[in-house]
Amino acid sequence: MYSYQSRIRYSELDERGHLRLESLLDYFQDCSTFQSEDLGLGVEYLRQLHMVWVMSSWQIVVERYPKLGETVTVGTFPYEFKAFVGYRNFVMKDGEGKNLAYANTIWSLLDTETGKPAKPTPEMLEKYVLEPRMEMEYAPRKIRIPEELREGEPVTVRAHHLDVNHHVNNGQFVRIAMDSLGSSFQVRQLRAEYKKQVMLGEVLVPCTAALEDGKSVVVLKDDKGVVCCAVELCEAGGESV
After folding, report:
1. Which residues contact residue 116 at a Cβ distance below 8 angstroms, ignoring those fewer than 6 apart?
2. Could you tell me which residues are beta bridge partners of residue 79?
3. How far is CA 82 from CA 94, 103, 120, 142, in A?
C-alpha cells in the first residue's frame, strides 16, 4: 500500500473543530495523485498520452473525524482493472493505527481527444501493483434517485471549483451538495456517483430529498435538467442502502 503522513490543519476544520468531509476526500485524492506521480504515471504522463482518469464513484465510510493537529497516515492501492475501469481503496489511520475512514472508488480512463474510453497502458498495468481489496461492506455504485426532489438555488461554476483537468473537482461536487441541504451534520457514509463533467461558467442546480434513517440525496443537474452528479449522505447512526 502506498501511504504518506500528515497533520490535520486548521484550514481543514469544520465548525465543530473536526476534519471536514470534503477535506477527507481531498486527502484521499492527493494520496492516489502522489502515488501516480512517484510512479511516473502522473499528470504529465497522462497529458502526453492525451488520457485522463475520471472518477465514476466514491464510497467513503467514516469511523471518526480527526481533530486539529492529529497525525494521520493516508494510504491507497488499486485492486482491479477491467478494460478501461480501475478500482482503488483508500484508508486514513490515526496515530495508533486505528481506522479513521476508508473508501472504495471506481475510475474510468478516457481519451481526452475523443472522449472515449481508453485501455490502461502496459506501463500502468506493470507499475500499479494490485493488492487484495479491502474488507468493507461495498455499496452499489448507482444511487437511487427519489421521484420527488426539492429544487434549490442554482450555483454557477467558478474558477475555484475546478481542478487541473479544467472541470469541477470531485470534492467541490460534494461541497455544493452539502451546502444545498442547508443544515450541518456529521456524515457516517458518503456515496457519490459522477455522470457528467462540468466546466467553468456552467450552472449546477441542486435538487434534494430527505429519506428515512438519516439519509439525504442531492442530485446536481445542469441547466437543461441533465444529472451531472448524485450524492447520498448518511448521518451518523443511519445506514445506507
Report:
1. 110
2. none
3. 32, 19, 9, 18
Q: Which residues of 64-90 are buried (b: 16+ CB within 10 A; e: fewer)?
A: bbbeeebebbbbbbbeebeebebbbbb
Query: What's the pLDDT at 63?
Result: 96
38 phi and psi, to 5 degrees?
Answer: -65, -25
Distance between CA atoms of 41 and 162, rounded to whole angstroms?
21
User: Measuring CA to CA, which residue among 214, 236, 234 is closest to residue 59?
Assistant: 234
Would you state the cell numbers that stand for residue 86, as one nine-digit string? 480501475
177: nearest Cα among 198, 207, 148? 207
State how far Cα 69 lies from the chain centre: 23
pLDDT in tens, 135-181: 999 999 999 988 889 988 999 988 888 877 777 888 888 888 888 88
CA distance 182 to 201: 23
Backbone dihedral angles phi then psi of residue 186, each to the nearest 5 degrees = -80, 130
| Cα(106)–Cα(144) distance, integer angstroms | 17
Q: What is the pTM of this model?
A: 0.90
Residue 123 has what pLDDT? Answer: 97
Which of 60, 85, 54 has the alpha carbon at shortest distance from 198? 54
What 8-state DSSP symbol labels residue 141?
Answer: S
